[in-house]
Write a structure and sequence with these properties.
The protein has helices at 17-29, 37-46, 48-58, 63-75, 88-97, 110-119, 143-152, 166-174; strands at residues 4-7, 102-106, 128-131, 159-163, 178-182, 193-195. It is an alpha/beta fold. Strands 3-2-1-4-5-6 form a six-stranded parallel sheet, with helices on both faces.
Length: 209
């Protein structure tokens, strides 16, 4: 049974895709580009870097200025536009009530993550937030997960890495942890579980309180 959960943030804990897509569209519009919303959203679901590279190439834009403007717009996206997914908060409380730990390993800037956690009063439910802005390599490199496991002496077989992309599954497997795919993204690796709603995680948790 699962005792601890290591959460991805964007697209997993918080529904950040509307705000992310809006930031991409606004950054493009400032450059006279009217891109299809559905296409931009599909690019963003792969990764922000993938979307930036693809959009810059498709519309013959300089990557660095586009990325800088996109990130500036995203920093100002209201937290109200990036709510926790339904059922996620119940799972966070259940993990803590059972004596486990909620942890975060994310590509998102730490400051932006802390803003979201504070706005939704979730920070006390997390033992730690690790971000690539702390100098960690990006997933699928398992460095963030490995360091969390060492710092908190996690039993890896009782720790679940959850995310909405293949790289989250690859990082979790490389760290020797159980993995859970949230959503229906295509993946070449098989996660231990696939869910469409966070309430499904409750059945995976260790029942001991």
């Amino acid at each position: 049974m699962i005792r601890n959960i290591i959460w991805d943030v964007g697209g997993t804990l918080f529904d950040t895709y509307p705000a992310t897509t809006r930031a991409f569209l606004d950054a493009l519009a400032e450059r006279g580009v009217n891109a299809p919303t559905d296409w931009v959203r599909s690019l963003a679901r792969v990764s922000q870097d993938h979307a930036l590279r693809s959009l810059a190439q498709a519309y013959h834009l300089d990557l660095a200025p586009l990325a800088e403007r996109y990130r500036a717009l995203l920093r100002h996206a209201p937290p109200e536009q990036q709510p926790p997914f339904p059922g996620a908060v119940d799972v966070l409380h259940a993990v803590v009530e059972r004596g486990g730990l909620n942890l975060i390993a994310t590509h998102r800037d730490r400051a932006l993550v802390e803003i979201l956690l504070a706005h939704y009063h979730l920070r006390p439910l997390f033992a730690a937030v690790y971000s690539t802005s702390d100098g960690y390599p990006r997933k699928p490199d398992p460095a963030m997960l490995d360091d969390l496991a060492l710092r908190f002496d996690l039993t890896r077989e009782q720790t679940l890495a959850i995310g909405d992309r293949e790289i989250d599954m690859q990082a979790g497997q490389a760290a020797g942890m159980r993995t859970c795919l949230f959503g229906s993204a295509a993946t070449r690796v098989r996660p231990d579980a696939t869910i469409q709603h966070h309430s499904e995680l409750l059945a995976l948790l260790d029942p001991r309180a």
